[in-house]
C-alpha cells in the first residue's frame, strides 16, 4: 500500500516529520514567550530575533571560528541567554510597570534593530549550514525515509522542553519562579530576590530560542528574516495553547506543526492559513486557550 | 533583695514618623511605635485604620514611603523587600497569600531560611496535621482555615525573629485559635518578637504586652497591659465595640 485515499504515504509521512520538526521549534519558542509574559508582563516581540541570533552564532561559529555544531549546541544558548540578560537589565527592566503596549513596542524595536544589523552584515540571502557529521543520511523505515537530522531535532527539542518543564514544575528554583510569576511583591517580601528571578526567566526564555536557532540552522536557511517568519505562528501557538502552560505550549506547538504540514500534501493552498483558522475557533470556544486557566 | 531583675528592654523595631502612600492616596500619616525584643505588641483599630498598611510599609510593599524604620538598629526604609525579609522578618499577610501554582508543601518550603532556629518540617506537621495530610494538594485547594495554618506555618520554618502577623485568627475554629494562642505564647517564651494585628480582641488581649490604637494612619494611644482593665472604657470608645 503506498496511498491513502489517493494520497501518497511517503509524502504524507515526510510532511508529518517536517511538521513535527517545525512543531518542535514552535514548542521551544512558545514556552519561552509564555514564561516571559507570565513573569515580565511583556509580550516579547524580540523572541524571533534571538532565535535568529542563535542560528547565526552557530553558523559563524562553524565557518569563522571553527566551533563545531555540537559545541554550539551548548555554547550558543548560553551566549544568547547572556545577550538577553543584558537587554533585560539595560532596557526592559524600566518598563515593567507600564502597560503591555510599551513592552510590545520596545521589544518590537529591539527585534528590528537586531534584524537590521544582521541584514547589514550578511544580506537577506540564506546561508547554507551543513548537517553535522554523524547526522547525515537517514533511516529507511520501509514505508518512508526518515532523515537522521530531522529525527534528532525532534528528540533534542522534546528533551529540552521536558527538561524545562521539570525545572519549572518540579524543582525548588522552579517554585521560586512560579511564586514570583503569581505574586511578585509578596514573594519578594518572603525574602526571594524577585528581580534576579525575572532576569533569569528572560535569559532562560531567549536561551531556549537560541537553542532552537542552532537546531534549525541545518534544516532551514540561516537568514536574518528567519525569526520574523517564525514568530507570528509562535504567537498563535501561545494564544491557542493558553498563556502560562508549559505542557500546553509543547502539545500545541507540535500539533500546529502537524496541522500546518499535512495540508501541504492534501490541499496546499490552505496550509499557511490553517493555524489562524484554528486560532479563531479556539478563541471563540475557549478564550483562555486549550490549556490555559480561565480567569 | 528578692525582687526579680527587670531586663532593660532592647528595641527591636522602631517606626518613626512613617508615611505611606498607595499611588496618590496618603494612607499612613506619621506612625510612631516601638516593639522591644521578645515582646508581643498588638495594633488595634477600626477597619481601614491603616494596620495592614503599616505592616506592608515595613516590608516595602506599599508605594512611596517616608520616615524611618529601624530594625535591630538599622534603618531599612531604603532596602528592597527581599533584603528586609532576609534580616529576619516573617510576614503572615491578611489575605494569606497562598500560591495556587504551588502545592501545599511547596508553599511551606518556599520561604528561604533567614536564620537558624526555625521549626523543622516534622515539627510543623506535628503541630498542623492537616497540612501533612494535604501536602500534595494545590495550595489554594486547601480550606480557608488550612490556608491560614499554612500561612502561619511557613514563616515558623524560616527562623525569622520578628513576626508580622495580620489577622491570623480570622476564620479559624475556636480550638485552632486556642492552639495559635499557645503557639504565640511559646514563640514569645523562645524570644521571638511579634507584631500582631487582630480584629479579635479577646485573642489579642491576653497575648499582647502592649497595644497601640491606630486611627486614620497614626497611633492614637498606647496602652500597657497592666493598664488594660482601667482603660477598657477608652478602648471601647476608640474601637466602637
Ligand atoms: N491597595 C490600596 N490602594 C489604595 N488604598 C488602599 C489600598 N489598600 C488599602 N487602602 C486604604 O488604606 C486605608 C488603610 O487600609 P488598611 O488595609 O491598612 O486597614 P486595616 O487597618 O488593616 O483595616 P482592616 O481591619 O479592614 O484590615 C484604607 O482607607 C484603605 O481604603
Ligand atoms: Mg487589615
Automatic annotation (TrEMBL), chain A:
It is a multi-pass membrane protein. The chain crosses the membrane at residues 12-37, 73-92, 101-122, 149-168, 189-219, 231-259, 266-285. The keyword Transmembrane applies. One of its GO terms (cellular component) is plasma membrane. It holds the Pfam family BPD_transp_2. Keywords: Amino-acid transport, Cell membrane, Membrane, Plasmid, Transmembrane, Transmembrane helix, Transport. The keyword Cell membrane applies. Its main location: membrane. One of its GO terms (molecular function) is transmembrane transporter activity. Coiled coil: none annotated. It is found in: Cell membrane. InterPro entries: ABC_transp_permease, BCAA_transport_permease. GO terms for biological process: amino acid transport. Belongs to the binding-protein-dependent transport system permease family. LivHM subfamily. This is Branched-chain amino acid ABC transporter permease. It comes from Azospirillum oryzae.
Automatic annotation (TrEMBL), chain B:
GO terms for molecular function: ATP binding; ATP hydrolysis activity; branched-chain amino acid transmembrane transporter activity. InterPro entries: AAA+_ATPase, ABC_transporter-like_ATP-bd, ABC_transporter-like_CS, BCAA_Transport_ATP-bd_LivF, P-loop_NTPase. GO terms for biological process: L-amino acid transport. Residues 13-241 form the ABC transporter domain. Belongs to the ABC transporter superfamily. The keyword Transmembrane helix does not apply. This is ABC transporter ATP-binding protein. It holds the Pfam family ABC_tran. Keywords: Amino-acid transport, ATP-binding, Nucleotide-binding, Transport. It comes from the Bacteria.
Amino acid at each position: 500500500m503506498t496511498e491513502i485515499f489517493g494520497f501518497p504515504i511517503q509524502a504524507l509521512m515526510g510532511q508529518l516529520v517536517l511538521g513535527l520538526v517545525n512543531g518542535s521549534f514552535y514548542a521551544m519558542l512558545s514556552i519561552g514567550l509564555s514564561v516571559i509574559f507570565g513573569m515580565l508582563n511583556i509580550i516579547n516581540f524580540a523572541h524571533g530575533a534571538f532565535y535568529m541570533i542563535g542560528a547565526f552564532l552557530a553558523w559563524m561559529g562553524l565557518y569563522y571560528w571553527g566551533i563545531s555544531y555540537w559545541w554550539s549546541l551548548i555554547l550558543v544558548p548560553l551566549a544568547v541567554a547572556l545577550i538577553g540578560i543584558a537587554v533585560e537589565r539595560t532596557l526592559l527592566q524600566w518598563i515593567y510597570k507600564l502597560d503591555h503596549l510599551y513592552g510590545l513596542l520596545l521589544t518590537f524595536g529591539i527585534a528590528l534593530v537586531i534584524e537590521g544589523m544582521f541584514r547589514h552584515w550578511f544580506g537577506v540571502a540564506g546561508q547554507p549550514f551543513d548537517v553535522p557529521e554523524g547526522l547525515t543520511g537517514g533511516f529507511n523505515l520501509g514505508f518512508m525515509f526518515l532523515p537522521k537530522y530531522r529525527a534528532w531535532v525532534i528528540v533534542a527539542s522534546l528533551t529540552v522542553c521536558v527538561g524545562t518543564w521539570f525545572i519549572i514544575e518540579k524543582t525548588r528554583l522552579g517554585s521560586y519562579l512560579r511564586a514570583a510569576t503569581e505574586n511578585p511583591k509578596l514573594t519578594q517580601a518572603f525574602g526571594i530576590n524577585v528581580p534576579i528571578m525575572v532576569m533569569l526567566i528572560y535569559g532562560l526564555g531567549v536561551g531556549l530560542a537560541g537553542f532552537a536557532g542552532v537546531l534549525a540552522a541545518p534544516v532551514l536557511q540561516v537568514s536574518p528574516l528567519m525569526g520574523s517568519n517564525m514568530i507570528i505562528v509562535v504567537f498563535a501557538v501561545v494564544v491557542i495553547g493558553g498563556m502560562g502552560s508549559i505542557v500546553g505550549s509543547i502539545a500545541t506547538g507540535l500539533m500546529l506543526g502537524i496541522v500546518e504540514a499535512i495540508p501541504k500534501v492534501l490541499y496546499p493552498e490552505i496550509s499557511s492559513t490553517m493555524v489562524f483558522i484554528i486560532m479563531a475557533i479556539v478563541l471563540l470556544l475557549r478564550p483562555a486557550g486549550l490549556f490555559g486557566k480561565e480567569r | 533583695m528578692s525582687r526579680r531583675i527587670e531586663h532593660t528592654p532592647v528595641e527591636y523595631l522602631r517606626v518613626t514618623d512613617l508615611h505611606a502612600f498607595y499611588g496618590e492616596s496618603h494612607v499612613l500619616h506619621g506612625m510612631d511605635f516601638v516593639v522591644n525584643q521578645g515582646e508581643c505588641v498588638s495594633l488595634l483599630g477600626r477597619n481601614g485604620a491603616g494596620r495592614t498598611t503599616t505592616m506592608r510599609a515595613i516590608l516595602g510593599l506599599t508605594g512611596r514611603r517616608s520616615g524611618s524604620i529601624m530594625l535591630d538598629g538599622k534603618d531599612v526604609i531604603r532596602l528592597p523587600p527581599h533584603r528586609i525579609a532576609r534580616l529576619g522578618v516573617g510576614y503572615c499577610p491578611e489575605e494569606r497569600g497562598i500560591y495556587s501554582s504551588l502545592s501545599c508543601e511547596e508553599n511551606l518550603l518556599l520561604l528561604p531560611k533567614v536564620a537558624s532556629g526555625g521549626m523543622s518540617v516534622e515539627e510543623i506537621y506535628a503541630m498542623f496535621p492537616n497540612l501533612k495530610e494535604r501536602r500534595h494538594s494545590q495550595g489554594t485547594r486547601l480550606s480557608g482555615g488550612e490556608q491560614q495554618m499554612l500561612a502561619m506555618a511557613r514563616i515558623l520554618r524560616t527562623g525569622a525573629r520578628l513576626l508580622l502577623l495580620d489577622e491570623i485568627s480570622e476564620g479559624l475554629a475556636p480550638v485552632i485559635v486556642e492552639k495559635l494562642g499557645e503557639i504565640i505564647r511559646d514563640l514569645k517564651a523562645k524570644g521571638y518578637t511579634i507584631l500582631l494585628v487582630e480584629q479579635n480582641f479577646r485573642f489579642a488581649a491576653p497575648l499582647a504586652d502592649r497595644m497601640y490604637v491606630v486611627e486614620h494612619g497614626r497611633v492614637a494611644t498606647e496602652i500597657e497591659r497592666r493598664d488594660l482593665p482601667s482603660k477598657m472604657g477608652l478602648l471601647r470608645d476608640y474601637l466602637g465595640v
